[in-house]
From TrEMBL:
Group of enzyme by EC: oxidoreductase
Protein name: Probable glycine dehydrogenase (decarboxylating) subunit 2
Keyword list, A-Z: Oxidoreductase, Pyridoxal phosphate
Record InterPro entries: Aminotrans_V_dom (IPR000192), GcvPB (IPR023012), GDC-P_C (IPR049316), GDC_P (IPR020581), PyrdxlP-dep_Trfase (IPR015424), PyrdxlP-dep_Trfase_major (IPR015421), PyrdxlP-dep_Trfase_small (IPR015422)
One Pfam short name: GcvP2_C
Catalytic activity reported: N(6)-[(R)-lipoyl]-L-lysyl-[glycine-cleavage complex H protein] + glycine + H(+) = N(6)-[(R)-S(8)-aminomethyldihydrolipoyl]-L-lysyl-[glycine-cleavage complex H protein] + CO2
Cofactor: pyridoxal 5'-phosphate
Domain Aminotransferase class V per the UniProt entry, residue ranges: 146-263
Length: 470
């Protein structure tokens, strides 16, 4: 058993443990009745924007509806009350769940093994790249230090590459939004550690040459890494491992039912094929006869721990419940509906906004305010602000960077046709307002408690007191 520090300190002794400069000298709080307090916080909750109250088409973030039953399951006392330092004999239920969840993830995405430790997508990227680095060193190829990244990648990709000590090499996409195969051939060589690729990419497009891309990378001796942030488009349709990917991370908080946003909670499990399995983080959950255990031995090549314990268990439990409730056919329908919704919206809007890649999209699509900017001086930011007046959360704007004045829209599978039509109608009205009353759009929003902010000033000079200027 691990001994924990003594926290039972008498109240009169607490002040001695706190540095004097951190002690409050006086307490000044406003006097309010219980009714006033209740009304205050109720009004705040009504102003809050969430997927439970409004459409949230935030591209590349999969702001889907999360069934409340999964929240209830994660809060069951046996799960919520467990402690990660409990002995394995006292944690058989959670260990069995983790073991089974890894097997489900292997079946869904085609990999041979998973680690559930990474606490977010970028953490998963870091973990995968650390394993790639360990693999090349183990093969006596430490000179492989370059990772190729397409210009349509997620912004965390080059950052993660640099954190591990690799050098990012960015190559351009072609006219159809695929990775440029000719540029890829020039970029890879004996110093290539691998390629990081999101598929479908941040343009919402499935790479039409993915098998050729995999062959080029593997022939150079590199590894193929799959950024699984957009896996909501592929469930039950295709598996990354079958396309040639060696390692991948997946955002449970995007694909498998967990509230998303506000910096957490998240979970980014990483799947690997056989050649990378020896480098997975420890401990590994194993089944020994009829019991489950955490094993740290027999993994001499492991990169070690990447999380203080075994992952964000609450998130994993919700994902486990989501997979069990839908099953194989249900997961496939999730992706089919997400793709159908995105293509429906894209085709309704492409006559009113510039569509840089006019081809079938996957779970999301990118349109542009290029026409509006050229004709009326109206930017994507202005259109996003005007959408707020219509009761919609704006989509992602100015990303991916390779599309001028981009608006990235992801409806997910959760939304009805009525909701999609209402959003498209608002977007079409805004396009017409750009023609008839451009100042109306440029000065939006008009119906919010706070009008348009100076966002640069707000970021650099935030007011962090309930008293303005305090």
């Amino acid at each position: 058993m691990v001994s924990l520090p003594e926290f039972d300190v008498p109240v009169e002794k607490l002040e001695e443990l706190i540095p004097p400069d951190l002690l409050r000298k006086e307490l000044s709080l406003p006097e309010r009745t219980e009714l006033d307090v209740i009304r205050h916080f109720t009004r705040l909750s009504q102003k809050n924007f969430s997927v439970d109250t409004h459409f949230y088409p935030l591209g590349s973030c999969t702001m889907k509806y999360n069934p409340k039953v999964n929240e209830d399951i994660a809060r069951l006392p046996g799960f919520a009350g467990a402690h990660p330092l409990q002995a394995a004999a006292q944690s058989q239920g959670i260990l069995e769940l983790l073991y089974n969840f890894e097997k489900y993830m292997c079946a869904i995405f085609g990999f041979d093994a998973f680690t559930l430790q990474p606490a977010a997508g970028a953490h998963g990227e870091l973990t995968a790249l650390m394993m790639m680095k360990a693999y090349h060193r183990d093969m006596g190829q430490a000179a492989r230090v370059k990772v190729v990244i397409p210009d349509s990648s997620h912004g965390t990709n080059p950052a993660s590459v640099a954190m591990v000590g690799f050098t990012p090499v960015v190559i351009k996409s072609n006219g159809r939004g695929n990775i440029n195969v000719d540029e890829l051939k020039k970029a890879v060589g004996e110093d290539t550690a691998g390629l990081m690729l999101t598929n479908p990419n941040t343009l919402g497009l499935f790479d039409e040459h993915i098998l050729e891309v995999a062959e080029i990378v593997h022939k150079s001796g590199g590894l193929l890494y799959y950024d699984g942030a957009n896996a909501n488009a592929n469930l039950g349709i295709c598996r990354p491992a079958d396309l040639g990917f060696d390692v991948a991370h997946f955002n449970l908080h995007k694909t498998f039912s967990t509230p998303h946003g506000g910096g957490g909670p998240g979970s980014g499990p990483v799947g690997v094929n056989k050649k990378l399995e020896p480098f997975l983080p420890i401990p590994r959950v194993v089944k020994e006869n009829s019991h489950y255990a955490l094993r740290v031995t027999h993994y001499d090549k492991s990169i070690g721990r990447v999380h203080s314990f075994h992952g964000n268990i609450g998130v994993i439990i919700k994902a486990y419940a989501y997979i069990l409730s839908l099953g194989a056919e249900g997961l496939k329908k999730v992706s089919e509906k997400a793709v159908e919704n995105a293509n429906y919206m894209m085709n309704k809007l492409k006559e009113h906004y510039y569509l840089p890649y006019d081809r079938q999209c996957q779970h999301e699509f990118v349109i542009s305010a290029k026409w509006q900017k050229e004709k009326y001086g109206i930017k994507a930011l202005d259109i996003a602000k005007r959408l707020i007046d219509y009761g919609f959360h704006p989509p992602t704007i100015y990303f991916p960077l390779i599309v001028e004045e981009s608006l990235m829209i992801e409806p997910t599978e959760s939304e009805s046709q009525e909701t999609l039509d209402a959003f498209c109608e608002a977007m079409i009205k805004i396009a017409k307002e750009c023609e008839t009353d451009p100042e109306l759009v440029k000065s939006a929003p008009h119906d919010t408690p706070v009008r348009r902010l100076d966002e640069t000033k707000a970021a650099r000079e935030p007011v962090l007191s309930w008293k303005t200027g305090g």
